[in-house]
Amino acid sequence: MAVHAITQGARQAKSAAPAEMPRNAGMPLDEAWLSGTRVNLSAAERRVATLPGRRSVKKDAQAGWLLKAVTCIDLTTLSGDDTEGRVRRLCAKAKNPIRPDLLDAMGMGERRITTGAICVYHRFVAAAVDALKGSGIPVAAVSTGFPAGLVPHDVKLREIEASVADGAAEIDIVITREHVLTGNWQALYDEMRDFRKACGHAHVKAILATGDLKTLRNVAKASLVCMMAGADFIKTSTGKEGVNATPLVTLAMLREIRAYHDRTGFLVGYKPAGGISAAKDVLTYQFLMKEELGRRWLEPDLFRVGASSLLADIERQLEHHVTGRYSAFNRHAVG
Asked: Where is this region: Disordered (predicted)?
């Protein structure tokens, strides 16, 4: 099997990621910038509608894109019936996300391919850190009263601090949606600054819960405020809302990331989450990232996908690429 296209597509996987970049230091809240923020809905809808026909990858090239996607997955379990055993199994899958025989067949057996992170509730952070010891895979903890974010502010800060103390390298916080819906941008900014400070050395991903924010303009403004307050990533959803990640919301958020980078020089990451379960869907998000922000934003330090069943479908597609046959979905362990 030809492996050149696969190698090209999977180049700079996590083991060869770029050197660590400066974190987003934030900036003072700029009300004038916010008041001038607009989203042209019809133009955004037209842009998104062109995505399926603009770019198509097949065979080796598609396999390369999918292997790159694996390195950007935040492999997640956020269920009420989670157990330590389930979390440890998920960590084992994160360390070896693709079957070795498939990697060997694609000429990628010597590459160290892992998922981008493991994402769990605070209760399981210590167990995940222990299970991933020596792997270099970070543990992300959902925090601040996830998913609703309606617990007292001081409780949110203590939860962040507890997860960092247990070894979480990344914290996925949820914003108070009321601040967005009422246009109280100062309150959102102050909240996000407190979250960033409580995280210390841990990187912070700001979950906007875009399905609850009603308009793309609200999404754009919330994205900007969180970046101004020092968010390392902005993230669409908790996965628990009625509407989660969509290409339309993604376009709005990516264009604010670009505007923020143009003005400040800081690179902020992006994480779509919720409902991304098929390999073809993650390809759409990768293409949009590359076209809107550039190649640099395809690396796991700037692009993550929050998912649970996505990995199984990617592995299933890679098996079809190698063997020409589709296997049953349940043959591909998720965790």
From this structure: 1-25
